[in-house]
Design brief:
This protein is of the alpha+beta class and 411 residues long. It has eight helices and 17 strands. Strands 2-9-4-5 form a four-stranded antiparallel β-sheet, with no helix packed on it. A four-stranded mixed β-sheet has the order 3-8-7-6, with no helix packed on it. A four-stranded antiparallel β-sheet has the order 14-15-10-16, with helices on one face. It is extended, with a radius of gyration of 31 Å.
Amino acid sequence: MAIDYTTIEEIVNDFQLMIDDTSYDKEANIYQLRLLALQGLRELTFDVEQKVKTTTLAVDSTTLQCTLPADYVKLNRVGYKGDNGDFHSLGSNPNLSLDASVASQVGDSSYDENNPYYHTDIGKKFGVGGGKNVLGYYRVNRQDGTINFSSDVAGKTVFMEYISDGITSTPARDHVIKFQMFESIKAAANSGSSIAQHGIKTGTSFKIPSRDGGSITYTFKDSTENPFEGLSFNPTALQVFAPLSINQNDITSSSEIAEAVTKIINEGHPEFHVGPYDSNIKASNVGDRVTIVISNLTSEPKDFLDPDGTFDVNLFNSSSPQSVGVLSQELVQLGSAGDVPKVHKFCEEALRSYMYYKYIQRKRGIPANEKQMAKRAYYNDKRLARARMMNFNKETAMLTSRKAFKQSPKI
């Protein structure tokens, strides 16, 4: 993961470390510094960084509108994503009605006398203009915090790029899943299960989501074939030991399997001084149902459900369908990594200069020269940050010049 952003907490902590008894800001409290840091981050986001975020919006078929995100500041574009990855924008229409529930009183027909553009002699529209966007139109309603669409977009999902305020934090959520464990192959055979041949045996494995967006694979081992006292090396935190022998009377039920899985996820193998694989993952079981809670996510968690929301044994079980560890999965709560206010490293110095300048700006007893120097330092650092954040390069210039040539008529 690229380390190109610094959190506000780190900025405030570094700022406090630079304060000594000779500093003009030595009396600054941490809550004052945090407030100034957030205000400075907002200013730099507007003028320099312009943090662009993306989201998808489902257009209501009745109201023809969507609610704008909480951190929305300015709209860049809204539309659809094409098969080739290009963005296809909707058209902006300042005349679009903000209330889709109002009945129309003017028709669109060229021959409708109620149409303000109707011409009695020719029967055509004049002054309307052309260039209709076949994808549809939108209009932003800042007062209500919504974006309205034309009827062409009703019931569809659109893709939006917007500038964020940069200071709105998104709390993290735990990822919670529940799944049903299968029983051992011997127990399945004794119970007369129709899929007894798929019961758990040595080598059967299953997956759970990991905190970094990947997956963790646990593998079952037969404790009768691999007794602890006969191991030449310690078991790993990803090996689940249970009586799974086919030849002996090891009738391990699905509830006992679930209990063994819960123990290995929570404790590992403490008798061998082997801890759990990840202490941020906790499990509990009731019967054959195991509930797993994954905390402190660093990336969006992997979902083992099919896109249509159904369970696929081939996606969830790591082993082949010849041996199945998990029968079903239920997504209890979709987790998220969350987000905290942070600033790009190119803008760090500008933010620290802003905090110092704004703190001493209205303080008494500070020389005017010091205030002017702090002001100049802030604006100089801000210009430097803007120059560093520029994305225009030689390839972009060449692409722009060639685009005009390709679009020009050839004789």
